[in-house]
Amino acid sequence: MKIFRGFQHPGIAPACALTIGNFDGVHRGHQAMLALLNSEAAHRGVPSCVLTFEPHPRDYFAAALQRPELAPARIGTLRDKLAELAACGVQQTVVLPFNESLARQPAQGFIDEVLVGGLGARYVLVGDDFRFGAQRAGDYALLDKAGRERGFDVARMNSYEVHGLRVSSSAVRDALARGDMEAAAALLGRPYAISGHVVHGRKLGRDLGASRAGAGDGFRTLNLRFSHWKPAASGIFAVRVHGLGDAPLPGVANLGVRPSLDANDVNGGRVLLETHCLQWPAHLGPEGAYGKIVRVELLLKLHDELKYDSFDALTAGIAKDCDDARAFFAGSTHAETHRQTTRDRI
C-alpha cells in the first residue's frame, strides 16, 4: 500500500475509487466497506484509495475550543490504522492533516479541490452518516449531485451489524472502556492490539523482583509509546506478543500513564504499553528487543491501574498479575479481582 501525507505528490494515482473517514480501529464495518471499495476499484480499473485524517477532527476542535473532554478516546495508533488498511487490500492511503484551513473549507471546495482536483475520484463510497466541509454542511445529497455534475459515481453504505449491534468506533470504544476485550474483538474481527517500536524506558522492571526466587532479571518490560494522550483502553492485561520469534509469547501488560519517579523520568508522562513476557526469549539477550516492531494483543483485562505504596508492594502486585496471566493462558478460571481503581501507579 502506498501512503501519502497530503495529496500534492507526484506518486499519487491520477484516478481512484475513494472512501473517506477516520477509520479508528478499522473495525468490521470498515472492513466491509473496504471490501466493497476494492471490488468497485477493480471493476473500474483504478486503485482503491482511503482518505483519512490526522489528527482526528474531533481532536482538532477539542484543542481549538480548549475543551479536552470533547476529544474521543483513540482506539489505535496511526501505525496500526495504516497496517490494518493495508491488510484489507487498500492500495493507496492519503493522510490529510486536519487543520484550520481544512476545518474552514466549504463542502463544495472540498469536492473540487480534494476529491476531483487532488485525487481524481471516479467513485466515492461513504457511510450512512457521512458529513463534510465547514460546519459539516456537506451531506450525501450534495456529494451525489456533485458526482452527477463532475462525472464520478457516489454510493452510500448502510450500517454494519453483528448480532443486532451496530458496529462503530464508538461501540469499540465503549467495549474497551469497560474492559470487555471479547466484545471488542467481536466488533473488530480480531483481538485488540497495539504495535510499535520497542523503546527505552525507565528500566525499573529489571530491578523489581530480581532478588525474588526464580525472578531472574526481574520484570523486564517491552515499552511501546501510544502517541495519543487518551487511549480507549487502560489497565493491566493478559497479552500475547508477536514479533520476537516464530511464535507469539504470553505476557502481562500495563497500558496507561505512570507518574514520574523524578523530574527527569524518560517517560515524560506519556501513555505507555509496558509488557512483560512470561517467557523471555533467550536469543534476544538483555538488550535485543530495542528497536524491534512488535504487536501486543490485549486478550483479558485483569484490573485497572493501581497505586502501590512501596516497591515491595509493586513487586508483589506484578507477581500476582503474572500468576493471573499464567492461569488465563493455562485455561484456568480467572477470578475477578476487587481492587481500588486509580489512574496512578508508582
From TrEMBL:
Please report the name of this protein according to its UniProt entry: Riboflavin biosynthesis protein
Q: What is its EC number?
A: 2.7.1.26, 2.7.7.2
Give the reactions, separated by semicolons, that this protein catalyses.
FMN + ATP + H(+) = FAD + diphosphate; riboflavin + ATP = FMN + ADP + H(+)
User: Organism source for this protein?
Assistant: Paracidovorax wautersii
UniProt xrefs under Pfam families: FAD_syn, Flavokinase
Keywords of the record, alphabetical order, are:
ATP-binding, FAD, Flavoprotein, FMN, Kinase, Multifunctional enzyme, Nucleotide-binding, Nucleotidyltransferase, Transferase
Function text: Catalyzes the phosphorylation of riboflavin to FMN followed by the adenylation of FMN to FAD.
What's an example of a GO molecular-function annotation for this chain?
Answer: FMN adenylyltransferase activity
Pathway field of the UniProt record reads: Cofactor biosynthesis; FMN biosynthesis; FMN from riboflavin (ATP route): step 1/1; Cofactor biosynthesis; FAD biosynthesis; FAD from FMN: step 1/1
Entry keyword Chloroplast: no
Domain Riboflavin kinase: from-to ranges:
187-330
